[in-house]
């Protein structure tokens, strides 16, 4: 990396993209903040970027030597737009790519799993970040957060299954290190918080932090899928409900040391994040 090289942050106004851009800027890096409307990000160079508009990709890649990739939201087959872009990026001189995926999606799996599988063949320097569910789902604009604020409830089909919820700031801290540090990880990194919690545990902590009663309501897979179908396509609703069912069966009941290893500090607990962010509401 030279002083003139830029890091392209795709999704720079989103949950992890905005935090990653801010941390890169804080580290003295030149950041091109990519979003559909070229929105201003303090300290970054704004650039318009739309996954579905190849004409926007040329300017976005100009002068860039590494990229942080947030897949297009809600696209069940993002490889069809992401892989041509990544091939173009490599041809344009990008040599490091860091992909945001999910702990629920393995290499070669559905959705962004196909991009994960292709990434090592496209770039010599790479990392795939596979965070567990975001703690900010309960503190930001996610449906769970809105339900907590408006109804004092969380509705899932997760049963008593536990999740290693992770702070979006910790995800961004890992993203920053994987973009800056040498050598590149060239690894698949599952990111979690310090403990696995059930949604009942989350409701209890939010109640204690805010002083407002919050309850976790247990739905069946069918009930949860049908609720989601009113908001998204039936196929996407079935996939999301299936993720809850996987949690109920123990698929996310784990923690890792990846945040500690990559950042040199322990990941933040959900109680810490709730106290930091829910006090502002």
TrEMBL record:
<dbReference type="Pfam" id="PF13460">
    <property type="entry name" value="NAD_binding_10"/>
</dbReference>
<dbReference type="InterPro" id="IPR016040">
    <property type="entry name" value="NAD(P)-bd_dom"/>
</dbReference>
<dbReference type="InterPro" id="IPR051604">
    <property type="entry name" value="Ergot_Alk_Oxidoreductase"/>
</dbReference>
<dbReference type="InterPro" id="IPR036291">
    <property type="entry name" value="NAD(P)-bd_dom_sf"/>
</dbReference>
<protein>
    <submittedName>
        <fullName>NAD(P)H-binding protein</fullName>
    </submittedName>
</protein>
<feature type="domain" description="NAD(P)-binding">
    <location>
        <begin position="11"/>
        <end position="107"/>
    </location>
</feature>
